[in-house]
Amino acid sequence: MDWDLKEELRDCLVAAAPYGGPIALLRNPWRKEKATSIRPVLEIYSASGLPLASLLWKSGPVVSLGWSAEEELLCVQEDGVVLVYGLHGDFRRHFSMGNEVLQNRVLDARIFHTEFGSGLAILTGAHRFTLSANVGDLKLRRMPEVPGLQSAPSCWTTLCQDRVAHILLAVGPDLYLLDHAACSAVTLPGLAPGVSSFLQMAVSFTYRHLALFTDTGYIWMGTSSLKEKLCEFNCNIRAPPKQMVWCSRPRSKERAVVVAWERRLMVVGDAPESIQFVLDEDSYLVPELDGVRIFSRSTHEFLHEVPVASEEIFKIASMAPGALLLEAQKEYEKESQKADEYLREIQELGQLTQAVQQCIEAAGHEHRPDMQKSLLRAASFGKCFLDKFPPDSFVRMCQDLRVLNAIRDYHIGIPLTYSQYKQLTIQVLLDRLVLRRLYPLAIQICEYLRLPEVQGVSRILAHWACYKVQQKDVSDEDVARAINQKLGDTPGVSYSDIAARAYGCGRTELAIKLLEYEPRSGEQVPLLLKMKRSKLALSKAIESGDTDLVFTVLLHLKNELNRGDFFMTLRNQPMALSLYRQFCKHQELETLKDLYNQDDNHQELGSFHIRASYAAEERIEGRVAALQTAADAFYKAKNEFAAKATEDQMRLLRLQRRLEDELGGHFVDLSLHDTVTTLILGGHSKRAEQLARDFRIPDKRLWWLKLTALADLEDWEELEKFSKSKKSPIGYLPFVEICMKQHNKYEAKKYASRVGPEQKVKALLLVGDVAQAADVAIEHRNEAELSLVLSHCTGATDGATADKIQRARAQAQKK
After folding, report:
1. Which of 87, 112, 239, 621 would bridge with 158, disulfide CB 3.0–4.6 Å?
2. Tens digit of pLDDT for each residue in 127-145?
3. Which of these ranges, 470-479, 582-591, 724-733, has the smallest mean pLDDT?
């Protein structure tokens, strides 16, 4: 260990994170025998003792320290406030465990880990428990009261059963289990008699097993469900241990508990004998997935069960295939013929594949590189004599060991075992290297393992950039340039995320410079709005061409700026102004009118008043007034046509209102043509003609309107009089067509005879007189008319007519 501790570990609050994590020491905690004027110091070290952070503690008395699964340090104060610090001593956040804890103070605390995250359990001065299963999503649970509890329990711990956190506590010889609903007394199966108190509890790393130390010197070991006893051991020591933790490997049948006193360490299990070690100095135990870390002022060691593969290979006089293969490889290097003898022995037993696998597995559990190389050489030697041995496991083990050896280095200080590494996964390991700001090593590992860029190098570079923006002693230009040179167009890196971190650090100008490198406008604009740079956000949104993005900025600007400044901003951005007008047309008509007024856009203002006259006004007077305003606007815009048309509409509205008053019926909002048609249908032809004269309706259009109306009325007599009133300006073919449309062939024939020569054939065909149409076509000698008549000839009835037309065509061709 590289640290230089001036005090013993027993005089400090100590917390060590699992999986080779950091160690936190709070020196000089609040003790009655210590001078209160000396402020304690919180120090954080790597597992090798390299200092990571040191800060003077200026807050309240601390009761307990612990590490979360994310390697954040939780400092539980006496008043129930929990302060959270990062690995480098940076303050992250704080939260409170509730008013009851504040009033009654904290006596003890436990940080535990579940599948939901890191939890915290508190024992208050009122001897009540408060628990949160996940401090990241704080939800406090007040546990039930223990009946008759007048003093603090002699020991307690947290258990996780069926995804629910429970509390197990000992009061004298009795055990109680607290869940969210009730307090129940429990009895340990097979416990030796005579126990009057439990002095220590320990739950295994996986929360599956439980150990209790009694005042009789017995250690009871069983399942955490308290339903099955594994074994019981008498250590013949009644003094309460300083620490007691489990020591077992995953999927191993061996169960062991490590108990520590001041200068003695004892390993006990289901064997009749224990293993004892003498501790030269004050030590601290850290339970791990596959063993126990033991560190003191000068050393950091790992106590674990010897893996099966290692035991098979290295035990004295072992004849296991892995042991023989290792000896064969060593003899081969010596160029000894014994190598062939060992190899033949393994092959005769058919165990060469097993031998290679044993050597590979044993190499994974070795911490010394020379032993790893020796075992891997043996595995490689054995593979040469196998035809179909898959190389994946060998290659993967070589890669894993290279990564493990790199992070176990003294200067890195993450002493992971192979089992811990596999449980932790490479992604979490990379996160922990990033957390320690070991970016070059993390990138080298990603490149060595050939991880996808988005999961590996890109992600690490993004973290590096986020750390870079926090270096306030470097100018904004230099930081932005360095980040861009390093990141470039690396896939998976978001400059907007880095800029957001810069803004969170109070470096707004740096954030803006970084956003210039962000190619996605959709990522630039929200952050610019958050930074109160709305005008710049509007420019970026317009450059992107994304109308939804522009609308988002416009609505933000509208709420942020006063009306005048908002309109002035829009005038400088024509595209934004156009889009905002479109928005106002559907949502805010009054704002649209203000925009037209401000721009002196009389043409659009006139159109606006016309739409408003029909959309909002129901009274004729109000509508006419709105139309008059529109006409005035059109005159200002020098659009005389629109102004005259608007005035004509005003005249028509007044006239329609008068017609309704005098004749009844519905006239208002009809078009001019519909008004004339309605008058004709109502028998008011004189009024219709007067209306046509007033509004200068052309004669052709008036004749069409009257013809259609009289035909709809089926007033054939009036229609005939109308046709003879004067020469028809539209001809008489429309009369024929309208009559046939009403299925009146008799009336149609009257007008067919009056149709001019150029339309005679078509009229005769409409009334069904094919023979006469043929005669007229032959007389006109018009090929188009002949073809038209011929197309109307059907069957035997028109056969003679068709022949007649064919003869006429033949004679015309001869000539």
Report:
1. 112
2. 999 999 999 889 999 999 9
3. 582-591
CA dihedral 359, 364, 370, 371 (to 10 degrees): -50
Q: Who contacts 71 (Cβ-Cβ below 8 Å, separation ≥6)?
A: 17, 21, 22, 87, 432, 435
CA distance 331 to 310: 20
- What's the chain's Rg over C-alpha atoms? 48
Give the C-alpha separation, 490 to 747, whole Å. 85
Count Cβ atoms below 10 Å from residue 789 Cβ, excluding itself: 28
The answer, yes or no, to whether residue 104 has pLDDT greater than 50, is: yes
DSSP assignment of 41-62, as one string?
EEEEE-TTS-EEEEEE--SS-E
Looking at every residue in the chain, the average pLDDT score rounds to: 85
Per the CB < 8 A criterion, the answer to whether 440 and 464 are in contact is: no
Handedness of CA 81, 85, 90, 94 (dihedral sign): negative
What CA–CA distance (Å, rounded) separates 526 from 496? 9
Q: How many helices (H) and strands (E) does the chain have?
A: 33, 27
> What is the strand order of the sheet 218-223 is part of?
198-203, 209-214, 218-223, 229-234
**First CA to last CA distance, the chain:** 126
- pLDDT level of residue 658 (50, 70, 90 thresholds): confident
HSE value, Cβ hemisphere, 13 Å, CA-based, for 371: 11
Residue 312, CA atoms < 13 Å, CB-side half-sphere? 22
Q: Give the torsion through C-alpha atoms of 714, 717, 719, 724, to 10 deg.
A: 170
What pLDDT is recorded for position 672? Answer: 76
CA distances from 518 to 495, 540, 585 (A): 5, 11, 34
Residue with tokens 């290679």, as numbered in its chain: 356
Euclidean distance between CA atoms 705 and 699, whole angstroms = 10
Q: Sheet containing 256-260: give its strands across.
A: 243-246, 256-260, 264-269, 275-278
User: Any bridge partners for residue 95, and if so which?
Assistant: 82
117 or 751, greater pLDDT? 117
> Two tokens at 480?
């932005």
What does the pLDDT look like over 570-629, one tens digit per residue?
Answer: 777 777 777 767 766 666 666 666 666 666 667 777 777 677 777 665 677 767 777 777
Distance CA(92)–CA(35), nearest Å, equals 30
The predicted model scores a pTM of 0.72
Model confidence pLDDT, tens digit, residues 438-474: 999 999 999 999 999 888 888 898 888 888 888 888 8
- Alpha-carbon gap, residue 252 to 22, rounded angstroms: 27
Closest CA to 414 of 316, 274, 293, 313: 293
What's the sign of the alpha-carbon dihedral 150, 155, 158, 159? negative
Q: Where are the alpha helices (H) located in 282-337, listed in sequence order?
A: 308-314, 321-333
